[in-house]
Amino acid sequence: MLQDKITQYIEEIKAFAPTSTQDVEAFRLKFLVSKGIVKGLFEEFKTVSSEEKRELGKVLNEFKQLAENSYAEALEQFEGDSTDDQGANRTDLTLPGSGYVLGSRHPLSLVRKEIVDIFKKLGFIIADGNEIEDDWHNFSALNFAPEHPARDMQDTFFVKKEEGNDIVLRTHTSSVQVRLMEAGQPPFRAIMPGRVYRNEAISARAHCFFHQIEGLYVDEDVSFADLKQTLYHFVKELYGEDTKVRFRPSYFPFTEPSAEMDISCSICKGEGCQMCKQSGWVEILGCGMVDPNVLENCGIDSKKYSGYAFGMGIERITNLKYEIRDLRLFSENDVRFLAQFETETI
Ligand code: DAH
Q1: Would 125 be classed as within a structural domain?
Q2: Same domain, residue pair 177 and 270
Q3: Is residue 10 located within the same domain as residue 156?
Q4: 194 and 285, same domain (yes or no)
Q5: What's the structural domain count of the chain?
Q6: Are residues 327 and 214 part of one domain?
Q7: Is residue 223 located within the same domain as residue 167?
């Protein structure tokens, strides 16, 4: 009789699989308290014959051990989950998170995006090329004569010097125009942002690397008037409706005619300040009609097609927008500088 009961309870304990602290407590109340099953069986044990006692004593003790061990194990499983403080120690998963600061966008990235977005609305696509370029794409295809001073060691970082096929760090994004035109046929309408390199001593006004945005539009019957209208629109979008614009004749090997474009100083509104060296005007880009030689170098029929191009420095435009006077700030990664620009939190 007693033996049968013990066997039955052993089965029950072995099958015990608690899923909460309540189950564990129920186990304790059933088996281990003073009116519980273990104590009850020991009471019953007293009534059996001494012959049976010899046999059942060991079994009963083992059963008690099993019940106590199972309880201890179950307790451990739910350690940390407290029943008597009603879960006060548990993490409240419904609380809102504490949020963290994401950091800010780099001012050059902000301004690059602003510029690119203006041209995207006009139907320009974004194109890019290589920072390590060959002589052809950086110079020769762009109509630079072999002895042109821009090829000089003073300005260009050479990766490899080889007669007629130097490998350089691109000195301007105009190289991307060549890559784009070589890859297809007009119409081309693209905006090309990127980093460029020049062998210059680092100071507040010059750096060995900086950023440019190139623009190119080639199709039938593209004229200088198209160029001017596009740039007028661009400047007004970027700096406001009442910004004044002027073009000055200039020279670039890859455009003919060429011009530089000035805008009325966005800081002093043309009154004269340190930024515009008291002139009221600042130069922001170079531009012109793509030289027919450049079109031909890229496999495009210059009798059928014409185009305009322009190129600007993103640092210059950013300086004018945020009154930054030292180019070195852009690459020093000083968070006191960077944190001043658009910060986001999630
Ligand atoms: N590549 C010139 C520079 O780095 C800028 C430039 C001038 C680009 C005239 C052009 C252009 O596309 O038409 O100074």
Answers
A1: yes
A2: yes
A3: no
A4: yes
A5: 2
A6: yes
A7: yes
What is the pTM assigned to this prediction?
0.72
Q: What pLDDT, on the 0 to 100 scale, is given for residue 81?
A: 60
- Measured from the CB, is residue 227 less than 6 Å from ligand 1? no
Joined together, the tokens standing for residue 112 give 């690059």
pLDDT at 93: 85
Question: Same domain, yes or no, for 182 and 283?
Answer: yes
Helices 224-239 and 314-322, interaxial angle, to 10°? 40
State the CB neighbour count (10 A cutoff) for residue 209: 15
Phi then psi for residue 4, to 5 deg, are -60, -45
| Eight-state DSSP code of residue 47 | T
Q: CATH code at 172?
A: 3.30.930.10
Atom index in ligand 1 nearest the CA of residue 171 equals 4
Angstrom distance (rounded) from CA 132 to CA 140: 15
Q: What is the mean pLDDT of residues 161-179?
A: 94
Q: How far apart are CA 166 and CA 285, in angstroms?
A: 27
Among protein residues, the one whose CA lies closest to atom 6 of ligand 1: 311
CB 194 near ligand 1, within 6 Å: no
The residue count of the chain comes to 346
* Domain ranges, residue 7: 2-77
For ligand 1, say whether the CB of 309 is within 6 Å of any of its atoms. yes
Please indicate whether residue 307, judged by its CB atom, sits closer than 6 Å to ligand 1.
no
- Asked whether residue 159 carries a pLDDT value surpassing 90, the answer given is yes
Q: How far is it, in rounded angstroms, from Cα 260 to Cα 311?
A: 10
- Could you tell me if residue 112 is inside a domain? yes
Residue 312 lies in a domain: yes
Q: 77-132, pLDDT tens digit by residue? A: 887 665 455 556 677 888 888 877 778 899 999 999 999 999 999 999 999 999 99
CB 310 within 8 A of CB 214: yes
Q: What is the pLDDT of residues 28-59, one digit of tens each?
A: 999 999 999 999 999 998 998 888 888 888 88
For residues 219 and 169, give the distance between their C-alpha atoms in angstroms, rounded to a whole number: 30
